[in-house]
Specification:
globular
């Protein structure tokens, strides 16, 4: 019998996260204080992050041990299965062997709780009572609500307004786990009020929601801020995905020729890819190809310059070296709400800049075409974000010779059926963001 799924036993759950900062081709450029232009120190991050996460953010240790309490929660759904997409292969008539790591089996339905659980644990350990965050499509907000509920913490979520309206059941799921959810921009913060004064009909953006969440955390005692992507410690926690996938591929006697994942801020892609990228960095697998996929509506890696920028719209965060479309950039309201961030993770951006990772962008209609093919062959409905990775898999499988393609199935689309209705009804629009609008947003970048 041909195997369709490759499982690991709970006893094979990785005991440490992998930190790619130990193996980078050159050191990561540090975050800068926007007022002084000098690197920030741990004391600058202490008002919004617990000490252990700050330590992980700057660490160059190759392996960082996973606390047993975190592993115990992980075992609710981990290890996750690796699937062979045989029906998709047959439909494409490809000689490629296609595998996907299924992160949709977590309670919130995505990869996000891998870091939400860890962040909630470290905050609880340091006596924090309340966590605040932003969310785009709602996957991250759902994950943090799930984690804070388990650890007995309060949770406040600022959800990008367009996604708040498009995905009401994501909001409902957060509320089931006890979170307070508000559409962003909101009247609860100074940052939100200023945005609404300028544009009362603003659809919001992750940059705006981050501003609101950071302001909230900085102005409330016993409150810390959590981020679902971009930062080093977030990508670190997500490497459990790639570490499991490597072990599963070893059990098959296989190794990928090509890795693919979708990119918004970079956490699911990096967590999946970095344990394999290590083999490329060490020279063990120099020919490994790695493709990061984003929407043409928010083409950060494919059209943004590589430079320092704020991580949020209100300029409350440190400056990060990354590919960016400008912190004032507000992307169109496409259904892949989790892929609408103006920047990307500095670690991922460094590797793209060094040509170790490829980047490409797709419009949303072609993405949903591939998502529908996947749903009708493999039987599972992907999130719009995940569909970007599937589009690249389909393109590569159609043109390739006999290769092993592995991608991260980062989340399911059960809360995104309105997007499929729009696609099937011919109501989806493709967006290729005009270069002049990108240039306008870039004109607001800090001069460094």
């Amino acid at each position: 019998m041909e195997s369709k799924k490759i499982f690991l036993d709970e006893g094979e759950l990785p005991r440490s996260w992998y930190n790619i900062q130990a193996d980078l081709p050159r050191p990561l450029e540090p975050p800068l204080n926007p007022k002084t232009g000098k690197p920030i120190g741990p004391e600058d991050l202490a008002p919004i992050f617990p000490q252990e996460l700050i330590r992980q953010e700057v660490s160059t240790e190759r392996w960082i041990e996973i606390p047993e309490t975190v592993s115990d929660v992980y075992r609710i759904w981990r290890p996750t299965p690796l699937h062979r997409a045989r029906r998709l292969e047959k439909a494409l008539g490809t000689p490629a062997r296609i595998y996907y790591k299924n992160e949709s089996v977590s309670p919130p339905g995505s990869h996000k709780p891998n870091t939400a659980v860890a962040q909630a644990y470290y905050n609880k350990k340091e006596g924090v009572k309340r966590l605040v965050t932003e969310t785009g499509a709602g996957q991250w907000g759902s994950a943090l609500a799930f984690a804070t509920n388990l650890f007995g913490l309060e949770c406040q979520v600022y959800m990008v307004k367009i996604s708040y309206e498009q995905k009401p059941y994501r909001k409902s799921l957060m509320q089931v786990w006890g979170a307070d959810v508000v559409a962003s921009p909101s009247s609860r913060t100074q940052a939100g009020r200023e945005i609404l004064e300028k544009d009362p009909s603003s659809l919001g953006s992750l940059g705006i929601a981050i501003s609101e969440a950071v302001e909230d955390a900085a102005t409330h005692e016993d409150t810390k801020y959590c981020l679902g992507s971009v930062l080093n410690h977030v990508l670190l926690h997500q490497t459990i995905v790639g570490l499991e996938a490597k072990l599963q591929m070893e059990k098959l006697g296989e190794y990928p020729d090509l890795l693919i994942g979708c990119v918004g801020g970079g956490s699911n892609f990096s967590g999946f890819a970095f344990p394999f990228v290590r083999d490329k960095l060490t020279g063990e697998k120099p020919d490994l190809r790695v493709i990061a996929v984003e929407p043409t509506a928010c083409p950060t890696l494919t059209k943004g310059p590589y430079r320092y920028d704020f991580g949020d719209t209100a300029e409350l965060t440190p400056l990060l070296k990354m590919f960016t479309l400008g912190h004032s950039f507000v992307p169109p309201g496409i259904h892949a709400g989790g892929l609408r961030y103006h920047g990307d993770a500095p670690l991922l951006c460094l590797l793209v800049d060094q040509k170790l990772i490829e980047a490409r962008a797709y419009p949303q209609n072609s993405v949903f075409e591939s998502a529908l093919l996947f749903a009708r062959t493999e039987g599972v409905v992907p999130a719009p974000e995940t569909a970007h990775a599937i589009k690249a898999v389909v393109d590569e499988a159609r043109r390739c010779k006999e290769e092993v393609i592995v991608f991260n199935y980062s989340g399911h689309g059960h809360f995104d059926l309105a997007a499929y209705d729009a696609y099937l009804g011919g109501r989806l629009q493709d967006f290729a963001y005009p270069q002049e609008e990108i240039e306008k947003a870039l004109s607001t970048l800090p001069q460094m």
